[in-house]
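Bench notes, bay 3.
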Amino acid sequence: MSKPDQTAPPTLLFYSYRALTRLLAPFAYRKVATKLAAHGVSDRRQRERLGHASLPRPDLAASAPLIWFHGASVGESLAAITLINRLHTRLPAARFLLTSGTATSATMAAKRLPDCAQHQFAPLDSPSAVGRFLAHWRPDAGIFVESELWPVTLSAAKAGGTRLALVNARLSAKSVAGWRKKLPTARYLMGLFDLLLTQNQQVAKDLLSLGADPARVFPSGNLKAGAAALPDSPGLLGEMRTALAGRPLWIASSTHKGEEEAVLDAHKALLQDHPDLCLFLIPRHPERADEIGAKITQAGLAYAKRSTGMALTSETQVYLADTLGELGSWYALSPIVFLGGSLRPIGGHNPFEVAQAGAAVLTGPGYSNFIETYPPLIAAGGATQVHDARELAQAVDLWLTQPEQLQNARDAARRYVAEQSGQLDVVVNRLISSLGVNVLERTP
């Protein structure tokens, strides 16, 4: 199948960037390898960042495609896995490769990827690393998730005949402004994609302003709505329910620096009318646990820290859940979840995971990363927006004292996710038709 014409040629800035990455690759590798090693990643797997594959290319049936997905970290990789599962039902002979850059995403992928797929760490965006990667894997299609615009990788893949798509695309206003200052290079990169699927109309307009071909740009909703629910542990759920012994509970999840103070102030206010109320506080970055523990003590609250094995008792007012991999269990435990990264202008976090677990959502106003999601979710009654500790306490109190309103919010959140996940079939259809990977396709 012939490749579509690019809308713009490569620029001097692109060639300069490619030359610079060649020079800086050894230093970049030292930094990323150190970070991976700190998470227990083996030397062999660290070298995947230099394009050295640790797995063989899969054996493929005649004309069956190898479809490559790339996502930066856990959230993007989960969206990719959702698409991999859907595509595999349509393309049973296809095989899939998922690349990402973080140890946590690799651990998640090992648990959740289907048998038709495998994971590698993404090559650094330098000519030698990308060249080795592409020479080994020879992907027929490359699907990049959200905002992964690596110029050397995209250019080399396209030159090698890989058809490219950007899915779940989102760009911050800062990123768009930066690319507009380099418009000829932005046009070149946009022209490398055969298909661009955006989270909302605004992102579609932004991509068009950067030179994307209007015939290839389609708003398609947020793919995270269709991701499988986070896994939970029945054993852990049973243990925690026994420890809580019927006490009411609310969760503050993915909190960032500067937000815990408001959460703790809200909890102290709630304890006046709900003295047995328990708060599960789940920081976005568990390494901040000691700092947060000091804040809890300063607030005059009794807490237990999960990472040290402290028991949740009847005296525990705050349970500091500073561990990884247990978020699905925590969401299944509580009907009320506040999502952090939103009381400050950080961008917010994924409400779909909360709604899929059956909980209602609370958020601050700083949810710019989910601007297409929160307003309709709030309008549907599945989420409530708060601005400070006082409003947060009021919202939690309302749901604690009015169980029918809480149930209505939980039901509304579930309905919204179900409606949004229907967009997945549209996305899969566009990917199959635009990327030319429909060999041996099953009828949907």
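Next record in the batch:
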Amino acid sequence: MRVFLKIVLAMILGFFLVFTVSMIFLMPKNNNHVKQINSSNISVVCLGDSLTFGVGDTTGQQGYTGRVIKLLKKTYPQYHFSSANFGKPGDRSDQILKRLNKSEKQQKLLKNADIVVMTAGGNDLRQELMSHFDVKSAAALSNEIKKNSLKYHHSLNQLFIRIKQIRQKSSLFVFGNYNPAFVNIASRTDLNKDVQLYNAVNQRIVEKQADGHYISVFRQLTYGQYQRPDQIKKLIQEDKTANATTENKFQKSLLDGSSSIKNNFISQADHFHPNNLGYSYMAKQLFNSILSDKSWQTK
């Protein structure tokens, strides 16, 4: 009987020994380079103009900002996401910089951010277009825009230099811009080229930054529901007769937001900013870029 008890006791002890060793090997290793659940606060700071502020959004989600936070929370329930939105309607790149320099709150949150998102350039370009819209030809307008893009490059670069001085560990995501008037004045393809010129400045500068990512929304928000080449070609052909000169009052009214527009991704309220559908698209593109980066999880 005693021998039997010794055998049973040995089997029990052996079982617990094997179980303990197995648990040691099966438990996930502690990686100091990955955020642990106990320290899983992720700070998202959004800088920029009206696109960051969320003008045109009727759902109260602050445009792409609230939408991308929802997507992140759903995908990464192990993290706690907090966000700060410092977008201001009408701001050019130099004005975004001035506000940043004056705001200790912005600087503090930017310094500790894990993810930084920014929109810039739309108001810089809009100002240039409006100030030169009385030129005699589309080519002359584009020449003025190209000449003044050097000023924009300098202004945006100064903003990025300041952001670099402040931010320590964040991944940086910067949107490009779009042409909200294209669907209505498709014959003015020069305006698309002007937007793309400024977008190239955004992309060139942001991709030189550490963990910098450029996000293009040009095609979807410019062409709206008309994405096929034949649809775009038809829009251009239909518009050539009526709206092929820079003196056309309808074109100017689109740029200053006083005429209706038929792009399903653009707000009917001001005919310039994205609507709910447009902001959802922006949020999805940003979300995909954040997913592909993942370095924000390891800082």
